[in-house]
Specification:
Helix 10 (about 250-260) packs parallel to helix 11, helix 11 (about 275-280) crosses helix 15 (about 345-355) and helix 12 crosses helix 14. This protein is α/β, with parallel strands linked by helices. The chain has 23 helices and eight strands.
């Protein structure tokens, strides 16, 4: 017989159910890593199927042994380039109590990967940066097997995916194991990082463990073990949950929680989907609390109480009271960082956000954007600003912050992410000069990252636009870049015709225009330097 009340908060799955085979396979791969045969392991499956639960069981076992463990997660909103790698590195350094010293290579790398900090000097090319990261992790794994656990890889940035593909080529001879979860339904033809992810999956050292739906007995066990002591469900409710959850453990838990919140069995109108399960608990909040939680969903999966109070324009005590009630309903949890909270599951945040009308959401994103613009360290939240102004419908601001974020990513050495951000900016601008500038930036980013064939058409578009605008200075710069990239792909004859003949007022002591006395801005060096 189910009883609703305070015991609902104690509802949690106490044991791993129905995943013994997958768990044993993970342990076997960790043993192989300890013998010097590493692997890249991808746990895939639909949302709520049990990927995080399996990973948590595995990391708990690993942390109890001799292996060294670093845990991180990818976030949907404003994922920083290399952010998950830096988070896992910081987790390892904290567990080892490594002092922050100027000569410590791991700490130097952690500081270098801090995307929010200013970056001085020329960025290293991706292979060199990847090698630096690999060397740091190898140093940590020199005496103990290193296990890196990453959650929600479908939200990872391009640079992190690029590094993982690089590492997968070399991991077989290392005492290193990477385990990452991802939602299989996310990587469809429209996913912006499908190419990078496909490259990772294709590596020989990549092992994919696909989690399918649990069988009826396993779901029944989930229901049984999730109930508080002395509050077992009757057979009719268990049968109903087994039927409706369709083998999804998280759905089963949500349906059970909804039943616990009613004075009797769950209502017949309760929908099968997760949306219904989440909103059944959201309905327990009063109107003011629901409004606060809706604002939190706009902020993202994780949010600070101070930021939420500011955006909601409510006293902080009122916001904390709403969060406390939401926590008792298991909608949110307290995060490891002080005064920071997170939705219990990414799906919870998505469901609540989806309930808001676009007409409601746009003003909220605008308020968040204006709040962020008042920060003294506005450059540290460029990606957040781009995200919120994009959804606020302010095309000019969205494009500006996307471009600024792309510039920072380019200087940082995260060229793939820079290209993606420049492309997003292009979606929001129509002014020819801005489009020419962005196409030029995309072209040179492809060039410096060793993909000149992809950069050439973008530079040609930029050159045509500059000529139409009669902007001779930028036309010359773009034509020079065209000549360099054409030469770099081995087309020497056409590179000569692409090389510009400058108007006299733009000529300098050095014909290439790369010298100190040039009035033309210095172009790309390294792979895109003058032939």
């Amino acid at each position: 017989m189910l009883r609703s009340g305070p015991q609902t908060a104690a509802l949690s799955l106490q044991e791993l159910v129905g995943r013994d085979h997958e768990f044993e396979r993970l342990l076997a791969l960790r043993r192989r890593a300890a013998e010097g045969h590493g692997s890249m392991v991808l746990l895939s499956g639909e949302a709520g199927i049990g990927k995080s639960r399996l990973l948590r069981e595995f990391t708990t076992t690993v942390s109890a042994g001799r292996s060294l463990l670093g845990v991180a997660r990818c976030v949907e909103f404003s994922q920083r380039p290399f952010g998950p790698l830096r988070e896992s590195l910081l987790d390892i350094l904290a567990k080892l109590s490594v002092p922050r010293e100027a000569g410590n290579a791991a700490w130097r790398l952690a500081d270098r990967l801090a995307f929010d900090r200013g970056f001085a000097g020329d960025a290293a090319s991706p292979p060199r940066l990847f090698e630096t990261i690999a060397t740091a992790f190898e140093g940590l794994a020199s005496r103990r097997t290193l296990v890196i656990a990453l959650e929600d890889l479908h939200w990872a940035d391009r640079s992190t995916l690029g590094y993982l593909a690089y590492l997968a080529e070399r991991i077989e001879n290392r005492r290193l194991m990477v385990v990452a979860t991802y939602r299989s339904e996310e990587f469809d033809a429209e996913h912006p990082r499908l190419a990078e992810f496909s490259e990772l999956v294709a590596r020989p050292a990549t092992v994919e463990i696909a989690l399918g739906p649990l069988d009826s007995n396993a779901i029944a066990r989930v229901v049984e073990t999730s109930c508080p002591p002395g509050n077992a469900p009757n057979s009719a409710l268990t049968t109903d949950i087994v039927s409706r959850s369709e083998g999804n453990a998280f759905f089963a838990e949500e349906l059970l929680k909804s039943a616990l919140l009613h004075d009797g069995p769950a209502p017949a109108a309760l929908p099968l989907s997760l949306r219904g399960a989440v909103l059944a608990r959201v309905a327990k909040l009063n109107a003011g609390e629901r409004s606060i939680l809706s604002l939190a969903s706009v902020l993202g999966r994780r949010f600070g109480s101070a930021a939420l109070a500011s955006i909601a324009e409510r006293p902080k005590d009122e916001v904390l009271s709403a969060l406390q009630h939401a926590r008792s309903l298991q909608l949110v949890v307290e995060d490891s960082e002080p005064q920071t909270y997170a939705f219990r599951h990414a799906l919870t945040q998505e469901v609540i956000y989806a309930e808001l009308l676009r007409e409601q959401v746009s003003p909220i994103h605008e308020r968040i954007g204006r709040e962020l613009e008042t920060r003294w360290d506005r450059d540290a939240v460029l990606l957040d600003l781009a995200h919120h102004w994009w959804h606020a419908g302010d095309d000019a601001r969205a494009a500006g912050y996307c471009e600024a974020s792309g510039d920072r990513a380019f200087a940082f050495g995260a060229y793939a992410d820079g290209i993606g951000l420049f492309e997003r900016a292009l979606q929001k601008v129509n002014e020819p000069a801005s489009r020419a500038r962005l196409h030029y930036k995309v072209g040179r980013a492809f060039g410096i990252s060793g993909q000149p064939a992809l950069g050439l058409p973008r530079l040609r578009i930029a050159a045509d636009l500059w000529r139409e605008l009669q902007d001779h200075a930028n036309a010359v710069v773009t034509a020079e870049a065209l000549g360099v990239l054409t030469y770099n792909i081995g087309d020497v004859r056409n590179s000569a015709t692409a090389w510009p003949r400058r108007p006299a007022k733009f000529r300098t002591r050095r014909s290439t225009g790369y010298g100190r006395g040039s009035r033309i801005p210095p172009l790309l060096r390294s792979k895109c330097g003058p032939p």
